[in-house]
Amino acid sequence: MQTPAPFEYERATSVEGAIASLERLGPEARIIAGGHSLLPMMKLRLANPEHLIDINDLDELSYIREEDGEIRIGALTRHVHLLQSELLRRWYPVFAEAETVIADPVVRNRGTIGGSLCQADAAEDLSAVCSAVKARAVIRGTAGERVVSMGKFHVGPYQTAVGAGEMLTEVRLPMRPGGGSAHEKVERRAGDFAIAASSAAVWIDGGVITDVGLALSAVGPITVHVTRAEELLRGKAPSEELFAAAGEIASADCSPTADGRGPVDYKRHLAGALTKRALRRATAGALRQEA
How many domains is the chain built from? Predict the structure, then answer.
């Protein structure tokens, strides 16, 4: 049986206390909430933190609410609450779609949005979802807080912009009218990591795509933000030909590797096909909003 290396454990009683502990303990300290990403890596000795700071008692970080024209989601919000949120379902149905294909009910009851994003696993669904809907991440440390886009949040495989002595506290989503969103995923079995997945968000005004977000999971070392396809789509009327062109760009701009889930060509094909499907459904949702 595999076991983690020895570590020290403490249970935080406030956000300020958790940040103070991170500052005091240095870069070998890690935050733990659901633990479904971190603990398996510790058992495999792929992660060897010397200190774990448990934030499960910090109810102040568990919420989904509307504030200042944004949907704000606390970092400790569980997957199950993202799935059940009527506010998210109304503005961004992509969250519910992604949550239904993330792991199983046991994991969804404990895992958190903050843990998913901070793990920075390229095969993880919520990173693509948050990239597509143009979410921003709030990072807090002893010097205050800063807000970064998802494009700047993930800086490399299993690496984020959260520095030593800092923690992710909130995710913010813009509340913009005329939008639709969708998530498409192919997996070997229900709840598994994706072979490939695509998240799309589309905003339409006057029958024209005014803005769009596209991101891919599991087909690169980090979440793939398909900016070239976004540029192609903006300012144009939606059409199957346009979606097909965006899918071709998605296939070309991802960088999958061959593994037990499939060869490179297959994964590129999936990236393109899933992008077309996600765009089609996101656009349909946006057109319903406009009507």
Answer: 3
The CATH number linked to 31 is 3.30.43.10
Cα–Cα distance between 230 and 172 in angstroms, integer? 21
Predicted pLDDT at 191 = 67
Residue 1 in domain: no
Domain range for residue 39?
8-54
pLDDT tens for residues 198-251? 999 999 999 999 999 999 999 999 999 999 999 999 999 999 999 999 999 999
Contact 181, 92 (CB under 8 A): yes
Could you identify the residue written with the tokens 């339409």?
204
Asked if residue 217 lies in contact with residue 196, where contact means CB atoms within 8 angstroms, the answer is: yes
